[in-house]
Amino acid sequence: MVLVSAARDYINRMLQDISGMKVLILDSYTISIVSVVYSQSELLQKEVFLVELVESISMSRESMSHLKAVCFLRPISENIQHLRRQLASPRFGEYHLFFSNILKDTQIHILADSDEQEIVQQLQEFYADFVAVDPYHFTLNIQSNHTYMLPAVVDPSNWQHLCDRVVDGIAAVFLALKRRPIIRYQSKSDIAKRVAHETAKLMYQQESGLFDFRRTEVSPLLLVIDRRDDPVTPLLNQWTYQAMVHELIGIQDNKVDLRNMGKFSKDQQEVVLSSEQDSFFKSNMYENFGDIGMNIKHLVDEFQQISKSNQNIQTIEDMAKFVDNYPEYRQMHGNVSKHVTLVTEMSKIVEERKLMLVSQTEQELACNGGEVTAFEAVKNLLDNENLSEIDRLRLVMLYALRYEKEKPVNLMNLCNKLASQSAKYKPGLVQFLLKQAGVDKRSGDLFGNRDLLNIARNMARGLKGVENVYTQHQPFLFQTMENIVKGRLKDTEYPYVGNHFQQGRPQDVVIFIVGGTTYEESRSVALQNASNSGTRFILGGSVVLNSKRFLKDLEEAQRITRSSPSVI
Amino acid sequence: MATRNQTYQFRKRRDALKSVRAPLSSSASGSGGPVIEMVSASLLGSNRNRSAYAPLSTEDPGPSSRDAFTVGLPPAWVDYSDEIAANIQQARIKMSELVKAHARSLMPSFGDGNEEQHTIEALTREITELLRRSEKRLQKFPANGSSEDSNVRKNVQRSLATDLQNLSMDLRRKQSTYLKSLRQQNEGNDGADLEMNLNGSRSQLEDDEFGDLGFNEQQLSRLRNSEQFTVEREREIKQVVQSFNELAQIMKDLSVLVIDQGTIVDRIDYNIQNVATAVEEGFKQLQKAEKTQKEGGMVRCATILVIMCFVMLVLLVLKEILL
Q: I need a surface site. Which of A545, B164, B167, B319 has the fewest CB within 10 A?
């Protein structure tokens, strides 16, 4: 609830003191921020009768001075320029400006200079600079996410831009929570180190007044880690509802776009999957595919019963009851159709791409299993005609990540096989992945095969057998969270910034993954929070990944690296 | 949650610049005529009044940018929406009175309770009338105006429709509870009547020796009373049911306008996307229409016909002259 309610509170406060008809002006970032937590009908209740993007308000000459403009924008130079133009020839009666992050003095001066007609009534900073997709999961929707894989020298301005955006997002989260954390970062990652240090500088030096909140006994913890420490999780196929929809179809800002998937009726072309608004989704978002099927069947049965009783109208009382319940009936109808459509589509995709077969091998590669069987399985699957290219690539990558040191010859065989089979495969991609996220670059024990304790644990798990072979993988983040709760996070792997030190166990932890999070990890976090261990975790990332996005970032980074002269 | 108010810094800078700007503009505005400029001395107050005043001057105020900023009158449909909002408010007040009247009429009383019935009937009728009038007015919102104005108008319509629908559902719920309690009471009364009748008949049997006429009369009057009572109750129930149906009709009409919560239509980003594509589509259609109109076959035909008419006329005249 925390992140969603913080964002909603900010928006409520923006709108509450201004009376009369309002227009809400947003930019392309804040529209995502607002849309995931606030609905159109709620805006209408607050008398906001028009929503516009800041880039298009100057296009119309029409003056609507009976409306008051509430602008909620990110403090970037394009927005300042748009506002300047707007203030010079204003269309609305009053302007109330809210920015989602800290303004620079020069920006305030520019705005003041252009406000000749004195129509700006207030200028405030409301720190809702993150997209709260779930109660404990936020993202920043950064377009140029692939930059994190490149060394800083290749593209210094984009790299700095990424760091700045990440720091802004993290700062906004802590300002919204009104806390100032102790910061730790992953030692082997340059970008994590940079982000951690810059955040510390912002919070403790540059804007120390702003961040000077009431100190609690135990400070909260900010942990900045790198996606490349766990490259396995984004490559795996998923079988729990929310993660599966994102992996097979794609969720953006809690919306699912089905238009490319075939012909649907108008109201099912784009659907909303939000745990706040859909109670069925809330109770099923972390369940696996088999259980979801059953639950949907129950939902459909319930619905059919209600509609049958609706058709059986005999007395006036029945009529009255029907008319009373019609809005809920209609909503239930929409909801049931939505879930049935999604599950049907996903079943179709699973069937087409033979994902059951593929995923079994994937899980074995990720969790346990011997090398010989794995090699055989991957080779056979590569020979299988029905597999799509992305699935083949993923299998080889998982094999590479697991067995890169043990059997390099086998790996080369597989890569050659892959290259010969698909024309679209970019040669060297697997090697590039290993260079980025190979065993030397990772700090944690991703596969549990480095120290004896982990090996023993794995063997025990293998002997015990797993409940569900498709969901046996647990993201590395789970181990990290466990270590934090038990106070066992190693200083060498995750050093502190400056001279901070954590006394005892933190009660609030924000984990930021530079490079992106996955829904499997946010599920882990939600389950951990539900287990009442005394520590509350919040997860954030630069984007929300699925395998397609992760591979796209990898390819883009490889392309830039190849074409850049400054890389050795 | 933390916020920071930068308004003070902003105003400081703005006022500092204004004092630099003001002497410049007054020197540039030329000769003669006092130009009364609305220079805001205080930080607050005058900002609110700004929109109400226009600069008074005998001469052109020169390069001042004030002319661009005229007093904005809201479009005409805002009056309609204000009227509907006022109706809704009134309906709410009347509904709370209705609830009280319901409660009063259900209490056991000595009198006939006719005035209560009248008040209830009157109130229900008024509320239904208000809702119906508002709904009709809502449907009649003008459809013209620029695209942006129409967006605002549509959103205002939606929000009023939601309010109206909630109000009508509320009214129906209250009516149905009242109806239910009425029915229960009715049966109770019938039961009581029955009891009375039974007692009456028993007493009749007992007092039969005393003579028939008197008791028969008493019985008859009791019967007549209970009959009247039931007839009245039936009338009430019929009226309530009628207003039920009216409200159901209103709700059906309104449900077209109301947004379903939780669907894609309720998302802000979806609505903005749609506006953009709709405006683009509209523009394209306009262009197409213009083109077809220009090359229009109809226009060509009409011109040809007119020309032919003239030619024929000329021929006719020539014929007359030559012959």
A: B319
Helix (H) or strand (E) holding B160: helix B147-206
* Residue B221 banded pLDDT, cuts 50, 70, 90: confident
Least CB–CB distance from A272: residue in B10, B75, B267: B267
ipTM over 0.85: no
The residues, any chain, with a CB within 8 Å of residue A85's CB and separated by 6 or more, are: A58
Q: How far is A230 from chain B (nearest CA, A)?
A: 33
Amino acid B67: pLDDT: 38
Q: Which residues 136-175 in chain A show a CB within 8 A of chain B?
A: 175
Q: What residues of A are in contact with residue B69 (Cβ under 8 Å)?
A: 65, 90, 117, 119
Residue A66 near residue B73, CB atoms below 8 Å: yes
Is the pLDDT at B204 greater than 70? The verdict is no
Looking at the predicted structure, is the pLDDT value of residue B208 above 70? no
The pTM for the full model equals 0.81
Residue A553 one-letter amino acid: D
How many whole angstroms separate alpha carbon A238 and alpha carbon A355?
Answer: 10
Nearest CA-CA distance, residue A233 and chain B, Å: 30
Which is nearest to A53 in space by CA: B165, B19, B87, B279? B279
pLDDT of residue B285: 86
First and final CA of chain B: distance in angstroms? 101
| Residues lower than pLDDT 70 in chain A | 1, 316-317, 320, 369, 448-454, 457-466, 566-568
* Order of strands across the sheet that contains A255-257: A251-252, A255-257, A270-272
Structure tokens at B20: 């630099």
| B65 interface with A at CB cutoff 8 Å | yes
Token pair for A38? 């606030």
